Amino acid sequence: MSSAVNWIVLAVAVLAAVVAVELLRRVLRSRRVNGRFSLAGPIVERCTWPGFATAAVVAFNTGYAPGMSGRSVDFAVRQTITVLLIACVAWLVIQAAYAVTDVVLARLNGVEGVGNRRARRMRTQITLVRRVAAAVIIVVSAGAMLFSFPAVRALGAGLLASAGIAGVVAGIAAQSTLSNLIAGLQLAFSDAIRLDDAVVVDGEWGRIEELTLTYVVVRLWDERRLILPVSYFTTTPFENWTRYESRVVGHVMFYVDWTVPVEELRAELYRRLREHPLWDQKDWTIQVTDVRSNGLVELRALMSASDAPSVWDLKCDIREHLVAYIREHHPHALPRLRVEDAPGTAPVPGSPAAPEASAAREALGAARGPREPETSGAPGLREPRSGGGRA
Q: Which entry of 17, 28, 210, 232 is 20 to 30 Å from 3 by CA?
């Protein structure tokens, strides 16, 4: 009878622990608490199920009395409770750490302007550190579970003695994996790349979307994902457009005729930039950067924006505006190729200009009137007329 009472008390204790966690969850979800403490929402979202599991296992471990299941089953029950308790506590600690860091990451994600670069650096480091911490907690928990078994604890001394040789063998076998792990930590704390950095990798422009200890995900401009090992960024050169700041200067190239009014285009560019919301009100100019051998002039228009996507859209808009402006207001400055004949040169026979030249010569001859025939001999001598010679 006493055994049944013990089981009833144990069940009530577990149920009370679960109810207490549910009441705490409801309090944290209330408007008064959730609106005042920003940490309440992430804790409820991440720690609800780990909290239920941990509370139930702790209540069971506290209320379970030795001998309730018999001597043959008692050891197995106690061992199972110990393993479950270690697993639930590790789960709860990991999720609580993620909940706390979620609040910090959410605040850093909203930082714009001058502090954006520092915020992205902190986001990268926090993301990697919490993943490393989660991995360490899992490894330590797994070790604690194994050492809770007496047989494994007896083998611990032998395992520790051979840990040096095993470590060398494991290091050789997992050389690439270890190099990626070390490279991931190096990238996080050397500030080489950060989350949301604009980079050019293998000729592809994109942004760092995800940075882990083993791989990096680059979201390309056309929404493709380029997945590279972390060691790639420590061994291969790449472009980082936002290394020190997110602000980027863009350029637009034009090839126009020599008659283009550069000053007028410069004034029009400045007028359009002042009206554009993506211009950061800093750098701008338009310059003649080259004169091409094909008779065209190269113009380069510079403009700056707060980040790479903004400068891309700004470049497209300015290019479209200036093309329309030149076409409508200065059509004579549109790019063209001229072919002119030098004075006194005759067109090549068979060329398109030869028939026109022949027609022009015939018209000129008709206007001058008939000409006297010339001799086939020396110039200036005329052929004798018939019957007009000397006797």
A: 17
